[in-house]
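For the sake of transparency, this paper describes our internal protein records without simplification. The remainder of this section carries one protein's record, kept here as part of the documentation:
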Amino acid sequence: MTETKRTSVGSKIILGLTLLFFYAPILYIILFSFNASRSLTTFTGFSLQWYEKMFANATMMESILYTVLIAVLATVLSTVIGTLTAIGLSKSRKIVQQLVERLNDLPVMNPEIVTAIGLLMFFSALAIRKGFLTMLLAHVMFCTPYVMLSVTPKLRSLDPNLTDAAMDLGATPMQAIMKVIVPQIRPGILSGALIAFTMSFDDFIISYFVTGNGVQNISILVYTMSKRVNPSINALSTLIIIMITFVLGIVNLVPILRSHTAKSERDPKKRRVMLAAIAAVLVVAIGVGAALGVGSAKARRQDAIEKYGSATLKLYITGEYLGENVISDFEKQYGVDVIIEYFDSNEMMYTKLQAGDSYDVVIPSDYMIELLMEQDQLQPLDHELLPNLPLLAEEVQNLPFDPDNTYAVPYFWGSVGIVYNEQNVDPEDVESQGWEVLRNTKYKGHTYVYDSERDSFMMAFKALGYSMNTSDPDEVREAYEWLLEMNNTMDPTYVTDEVIDGMISGEKDIAVVYSGDAAVILDENEDMRFWMPEEGTNIWYDCMVIMKNAENPLLAHEFINYMLTYEAAYDNAETVGYSSPNAEVLELMATDPDLYGENEAYLPRSGYELDESFENNQALKKMLADYWIKVKAAQG
């Protein structure tokens, strides 16, 4: 083989590997969108069920509509603004050009999270209701600089006398711009528009902070759905890939159509037919969008408005935390609309609440409820409007942070424990060592640890025999050293909700897991077992509360009371997998073998003296945050 042929073969191999690297993840997503099971790692058979669930999910369809609509509008507006600004600057003094260009670079170079927080505070200060308008304005703001960066180099390459020449020949200033300048810089405008569309379509961080009132794009939806195993994400991603491929196909056909159009320009009849076809396509596209918009808008009934003062309830909840039919049944039964927004952590939720966002019902965790109570941000509950309170299970009554249900009603509750593969892990090791099994070098490289400072320090405190709410600096330091040794000797993998699929597929042998997630894992993999260490663990409670600035407190009470009913509690518990606060549902789920009766992870331990719940301890929170950064840094 000659040197030239060897080079050619080597180049083809490198090209093939490069294409595989780029497209293998896409092909993986497409393949698993047809998986018969919930697993994201093991293909068990062909099925279209996730596409059916996706198209039946109104929230997904709405997110697609909002994403496309905002991306198109933001692209048009930012392209017009950016192009006109760039043209205006090209005729300005040098110092003005340099000043504006430097200002234009700031949004591009500024970290997205800083921009997002800034916009959140800006809209809050102006008392602008967050939703479609605020998201659109934010997208126009961060897309416009990219258009200017794309158009400006094209303007600099033009003869600066073009405009003057056009006006000398009788053109108005607008004609000079539209008929002389714009055609010359069209490639830059198109490039800027494509960048703007891509930026808007893909954006998550800024969108997450500036949206509200149920308006969410695909990025926000996928992020909140990824908190639990949901293969519908693969179906949605596949749909997006198909859409992008279709658009790219059209883009590649445009030159051919343009050439055909040029030949047909002398034939008015052919031209009219082509324009009619384009108009028909646009009408169909607008019609589909309108249909989606009309379908997603629920009718507001007059009797609900008269009874509650409003027919809309705003719910703020973590992702993948609702039964399949809970919200739709509530809307039908009471003739109202429920606007759902999702948060990924209590801290993120708190940030938006502090910015002044208004919600009727929020579902935070125990320690966050305690903080909101201390800051007087919650309304006391009217127990006369909650006749279903007696349906609460004994295990969730008299909670330490709110013993009389003055402010909070339990939504879900659970524990934190250890899931292990009994085929590879000796049960005696787990039961005798408890949390210390996570430092047993026999299982080095085979453990998952939850990527959370609270949960990780909790297990360290309990392993050392301390309270997980301690404020003693020496005990906190000792817990840090415990975690540091675990990190250095065990090579753990730090995860969040991806632990579910990881343990289902048997990637690791030991994991720290929340009880509801553990119940799902045990259901899907018969080799897995669950253990709550005798040293104690965290028993947590997520509760429904009504914010002080709630716009519809009467309907909020109605929703809380509805969630305590057997039907709603059953749907919730069966779908999500966490322990229900409804006594009847809890007993049924924990005893029926067709549900969770044979699942040792479902029912949390109750009344054990070494178990605790997190308290609102700001001094401890700061110490844990500082030490956790050091633990994670040691991992690298």
